[in-house]
Hints:
three-stranded antiparallel beta sheet; alpha/beta; BUG; Bug_dom1; 10 helices; D-Maltodextrin-Binding Protein, domain 2; 2 domains
Amino acid sequence: MGVLLAGSLALTACGASSSSGSTEGGAYKPGGNVTMTVPFGAGGGSDLSGRAIAAGLEKITGVNISTENKEGGSGAVGYAAFLAKAGKADQLLATETAMLALPLTQDVPFTYEDFTPIMKLGDDFTLLTVSPDSPYETCTDVVNAAKDGRVVAAVSGATSLDQIVFSLIEKETGVEFDRVPYESGNEVVAGLLGGQVDVISVNPGEVLGQLEAGTLKPLCAIAENRYEFDSLKDIPTAAEQGIDVAFAQFRGFIAPGNITDEEKQFWIDAAKEFEQTDEYAAYIEDNLMQANAVYGDDFKEYLTGNAEDLAKVLGE
């Protein structure tokens, strides 16, 4: 299923770590302040994620964790700077699907295997959505219409989540959508409501108000399971309608490569405590995400599969 990105992830000790910290019986704790890098600008989803994680970990560990936005190159600048932090366990980064998409689409000096996965907080899936007066009632209706004629879909960029979703549906079902590119999610929704396109794929958190008001009609969730939120629980998954496609933007955090096992375990243990807090639950609920938390090597396994799915769409 796709290609495996090159590189090697160093999760074990390779000599003394370059980050400072106390050790009592082999245990690690940062000896000073910790920095959480956000590879995007302030105010976006990655920024909200990074600040929520930093605040939660700070409360649990008692270590001061500051958040630093390092934007540019669709995330490439922040990830490249983080690559240079190898061996420093007092550095963290709020990560998402861009970490996997960038090496497939740009000449960047890193892959996900250069870093140490700590925690995936959850998944931000999308809804296939149409206007209220659309004749389509299910995602199967959309696919059948694309088999018989022209269905126009909006996308917000060549490496965007909606582009990936429509491409995966095409590969699964053998149909082809006509695409109209837009600059942002807001423009995508406007294009649908203005009649320029027939269908869109959007994160529910972006359009919850329109869904509740009935100005958008959801057909299915491109998700592994139905949402548990009251406002979304009645929306079937694509798989329930015979379309075996699920893809999400994940949210999580990583440490640099070449940290020790003890340093890695310290952050995994803190992350597991964070998952049990009200702050974690509030972050997931406020952003209408699915709380599929995984840690360490399990997070790495998830990234491998996710990268392979992306390679089918974005890779050569």
